[in-house]
Amino acid sequence: MAPVAVDQYNSPELEKGSTKLSAQADSTRTKPAIKPNGSLEKFEHFDVTPVIGREYPTVDLTELLNAPNADELLTELAYTISSRGVVFFRAQDKLTNELQKQLIQRLGELSGKPSTSTLHIHPVLNSEDKIDEERDPDQHISTISSKLFKKVYSQDLEETISPKKQSHNIWHSDIAFEKAPADYSSLRLTQLPKTGGDTLWASGYEIYDRISAPFQKLIESLTCTFAQPHFKDAAKRGGFRIYDKPRGSPDNVGTDLKAVHPVVRTNPVTGWRSVFPIGAHISHINHVTENESRLLLKWFSNILTESHDLQVRFRWQNENDIAIWDNRCTFHTATNDFEGLGDRAGNRAVGIGERPYFDPESKSRREAAELDGTVLGSPFLIR
Q: What's the rounded Cα separation, in Å, for the pair 88 and 83?
């Protein structure tokens, strides 16, 4: 069943236009109401790693959407995605773009997203100007295409600069530059290369849990400026305009793609803490020196890239395989290793959630598990 209305959830959040945490109430969403109800236990599933990822190899998502107890099933699915970080389904051949959009919006609504939050309109990929013939005309569907990305995002390098590069710098959380960023994202691939093109996710919960208590206290007090100036550059090169109307929320307007969010945010679905500023949409940590900001951001990134045991790698096997993830607690990256092996394309629907906040009464994932008596796999050292 759907979560019932509850009292407003008083939590520290950012005042509009401020870079400091305040203790104002978040009037846009309600107290966490989801508890696992067990309704998905009857379906075949397995956890891909102890830390992150779950797969339902035989579930048909259209059957969940149309079931008599659809709200109960989708509420459980929302909690599962938020607790496991990312969930995978195979060969969803009956899932149309319209149903994919419905699924993502309902997951957000059933887990308590603000009533003003809908689906995101990407400022570049869904520009009102004509970008590419292959782009889906639906503004709430982002076409994820290797052909389109090369056209929109490729940059000419100086002759003296080698085009060779590493891939660690394309980890990100979707649209973190928006004032109200993404909650649930979905990607369904409809065209696969012969091999390659895997997607990886990493757990922000686990990154937080691997930081010592004194440093946890430090970063909990900080905020970060998120920005994406490269989108303006891409629009200028391509001769099209940034989409400046509401992008899934009245908070997400204009062409200044910049927002201030807490360094540690609380996921309202689980009540767990996650490190947030990692990846391609980050500018700087606020109210520290430039060197301190650079060191902190590099440290967060290093925890992710140097810890394969908090990552999961998904191999796209079939057309219409789909991944659904929670951007409030995960980071992801594509693997662009398939040049010459065919094109990779698919359809993405992204939900908009709440303005990020940090609740000092929230728990870390491992702290919550210990209180509940839940056994989690933990790293161990071999000396």
A: 14
